[in-house]
Specification:
Blueprint (H helix, E strand, L loop, with lengths): L4 H27 L14 H13 L7 H27 L12 E2 L3 E2 H27 L3 H37 L3 H25 L1 H9 L17 H27 L15 H14 L7 H27 L1 E2 L9 E2 L3 E2 H27 L3 H33 L3 H5 L4 H9 L2 H7 L4 E2 L2
Antiparallel strand pairs: 1-2, 3-6, 4-5
Helix pairs in contact: 1-2, 2-3, 3-4, 5-6, 8-9, 8-12, 9-10, 9-11, 10-11
Length: about 450
């Protein structure tokens, strides 16, 4: 069953509240008192709502196989939980939860026990809870429902902003205040007392791991940057995205030439030989696997196989939902899942992750860091701007190509000027079919 955007928005808030209630009950059971365990002050845990929305968007087509539905839910939720934990720690320099003491954990962010619970939740939500809540949502008058969603959304944004300010205040209050003018200091203190003081106390009670991680990881004095894109920084990942997008396109082109005897385009964008899937894959795999780059080969291979398969599946569903186009179809392969992924290519992801982290990444990382800092930043920023523009034009060209393929004659007739005319002139069907030879328009 495919749910509308309106329904998925409601799913987000419903399951965010249910997740918050479950967290509060669990905390009350263990600590014998009420504690608001949410990141925000409102009775919501957005990570649960995000997971539920991901289940509703990406997993309905797996209803026919409970095992794959369970496995897909476990992997998808684990990916969300991992990146949420990693991003929160990157932003606030604190670890919000830590599963290091549990068996079969991955860097303390996820563990097998909770991944299995997520998988079971995916089955229950898909077959029982989502249809029930979808029917309940239909009972709410549409106008009232839309207004409520706007109110809840705005309140959540403001709540998140207040919580973020409070946490940053816990870390950098003295440094920030010392840099303000006298008038700004008074305003800052007023805001701190009125907004962040209560939130700060709540966060310290709700997440004791924050205090523990603060003690373990005292802020280090800032050091002068001597090299460009040192470590696993933003510019390092951006550079690897650009390199990976190019190398991925070249690799796929050569692979297709060897296996099919045809020289065909494998690019994701209209300008240049770049595969966005490969570029994002390189950047994401590096960000995820950087912390375990010294682990055994089998460990990295297994992590790459699971993460690569999940990533490719999500990309396939996303492009079909957004562009109405299927860019690859593995239905003719054995052990495929909905034609979106197959076991052989998942193993390729595992091999690619191993080769990347053990051989290619160290070499490329060393080359990138040899660039002068100013030159590296300028080149990287220019390439980022180019790729953003490239992706936007490609999305518009694909959307227009889809309209033409669906036989939307009225839309074609109106394209006498403006953007549609530009797209029709510069990206006709022949050029689009050359760039995307395997693209299929779907309902």
């Amino acid at each position: 069953m495919v749910y509308s955007f309106y329904e998925t928005c409601w799913f987000f808030f419903i399951y965010s509240f249910i997740g918050w209630a479950a967290e509060v009950c669990a905390a009350a059971f263990h600590r014998k008192k009420f504690i608001n365990r949410g990141f925000v002050s409102a009775p919501l845990c957005p990570i649960y709502g995000t997971g539920a929305v991901a289940f509703a968007v990406f997993l309905p087509e797996l209803r026919g196989n409970i095992f794959f539905l369970f496995l897909g839910g476990a992997i998808l939720a684990s990916v969300i939980e991992f990146f949420t934990g990693a991003v929160l720690e990157k932003i606030f320099h604190r670890k919000w939860w830590d599963y290091s003491e549990k068996r079969f954990n991955f860097d303390g962010y996820i563990c097998l026990h909770y991944s299995m619970i997520w998988g079971g939740a995916a089955v229950l939500l898909t077959f029982f809870f989502n249809p029930f809540f979808a029917a309940f949502i239909q009972l709410i008058p549409r106008l009232i429902g839309v207004v409520l969603l706007w109110v809840l959304g705005i309140a959540l944004v403001l709540d998140t902003a207040g919580t973020t300010l409070a946490i940053w205040g816990m870390q950098k209050r003295i440094e920030q205040l010392s840099q303000l003018t006298e008038g700004m200091v008074q305003v800052s203190r007023l805001l701190e007392n009125a907004i962040t003081k209560r939130i700060t106390r709540r966060m310290e009670k709700a997440f004791p791991a924050l205090e523990e991680s603060a003690l373990k990881k005292q802020p280090k004095p800032e050091k002068e940057i001597k090299v460009f894109a040192e470590g696993c920084s933003f510019y390092k990942l951006a550079s690897l995205f650009l390199i990976g997008a190019f190398l991925g396109d070249v690799t796929e082109t050569i692979f297709c030439l060897i296996t099919t005897g045809r020289l065909m385009s494998r690019s994701s964008v209209v300008y240049g030989p770049f595969s966005i899937v490969w570029g994002l894959g390189c950047a994401l795999l590096t960000a995820v696997l950087y912390g375990i780059r010294d682990k055994s080969d089998s460990y990295i291979f297994a992590a790459g196989t699971l993460l690569g398969g999940a990533y490719e599946y999500i990309c396939s569903v996303f492009t079909e939902l957004v562009f109405g186009t299927v860019f690859w179809d593995y239905s003719e392969f054995r052990f495929n899942l909905g034609g979106r992924i197959n076991l052989l290519y998942c193993f390729f992801w595992g091999i690619a992750a191993l080769v990347w982290m053990k051989f290619l990444y160290p070499i490329l990382s060393e080359w990138i860091e040899k660039l002068p800092e100013k030159v590296g930043k300028i080149l990287c920023n220019l390439m980022i701007i180019f790729m953003v523009f490239n992706c936007m034009i490609s999305a518009l060209a694909l959307g227009r190509y889809e309209e033409r393929q669906r036989g939307d004659l009225e839309a074609a007739a109106e394209a006498s000027d403006g953007m549609d005319a530009f797209l029709d002139e510069h990206f006709p069907d022949e050029r689009m079919e050359h760039i995307y030879p395997n693209a299929k328009i779907v309902e």
